[in-house]
């Protein structure tokens, strides 16, 4: 249970790649996270260092990523941080991966339209009976309707 869970805010740097694997759907993309700071000499915001993470999504999250994200989209990713070191062609390489738990558009920088995906039907279970929609238009005093409290009118000041 000693995992490092982080929340990274950045932009999708590569088009998500979707694969159907033996263990289920998988998607990956690169996330660019650039720090910004106020340069007091110029009195303007300046971009700092950019960190790149490879984001991995599995199962339903992977399918939703492939249908929702494009290069340049501002996103928020929460997931498990995995830092890997290896030697390639005699050089040491370090990479940071995020095993995503949740991904969403960053609504501080734009709007998004949410569409719920359908859930697969359970094999033997019967569908739940439909509940009737409550009648919000019932007149006060009729069965089950709340009677609004009347507030006294303020006295006129002359």
Measured as a percent range, the helix fraction is under 10%
**Strand-pairing-aware structural class:** mainly beta
The outline comes out as globular
Question: What is the number of helical segments per DSSP (H or I, 4+ residues)?
Answer: 1
Q: What is the terminal-to-terminal distance? A: 72 Å
Task: Outline the biggest β-sheet.
Answer: 5 strands, mixed, barrel
Mean pLDDT: 82
The main sheet orders its strands as 1-3-4-6-5
Number of strands: 6
Stretches with pLDDT under 50, minimum 5 residues: 144-149
- Give the strand content: over 45%
Radius of gyration: 26 Å
SSE ordering: EEEEHEE
Overview of this protein structure:
This protein is mostly beta strands and 158 residues long. The protein is built from 1 helix and 6 strands. It has one helix at 59-68; strands spanning 5-12, 17-21, 24-39, 44-58, 74-88, 91-105. Strands 1-3-4-6-5 form a 5-stranded mixed β-barrel. The longest helix is centred in the middle third of the chain and has 10 residues, at 59-68. It is globular. It starts with a strand and ends in a 53-residue tail after the last strand. The model is unreliable at 144-149 (pLDDT under 50). Residues 145-158 have a biased composition (Low complexity). Residues 109-158 are annotated as: Disordered.
């Amino acid at each position: 249970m000693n995992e490092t869970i982080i929340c990274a805010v950045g932009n999708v740097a590569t088009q998500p790649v979707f694969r159907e694997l033996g263990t289920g759907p998988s998607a990956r993309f690169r996330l660019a996270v650039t720090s910004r700071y106020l340069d007091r000499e110029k009195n303007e915001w300046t971009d700092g260092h950019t960190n790149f993470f490879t984001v991995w999504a599995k199962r339903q999250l992977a399918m939703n990523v492939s249908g929702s994200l494009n290069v340049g989209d501002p996103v928020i990713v929460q997931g498990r941080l995995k830092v890997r070191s290896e030697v390639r062609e005699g050089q040491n390489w370090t990479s940071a991966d995020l095993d995503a738990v949740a991904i969403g558009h960053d609504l501080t920088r734009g709007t998004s339209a949410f569409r719920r995906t359908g859930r697969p039907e359970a094999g033997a279970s019967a569908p739940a009976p439909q509940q009737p929609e409550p009648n919000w238009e019932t007149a006060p005093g009729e069965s089950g309707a709340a009677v609004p409290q009347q507030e006294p009118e303020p006295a006129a000041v002359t």
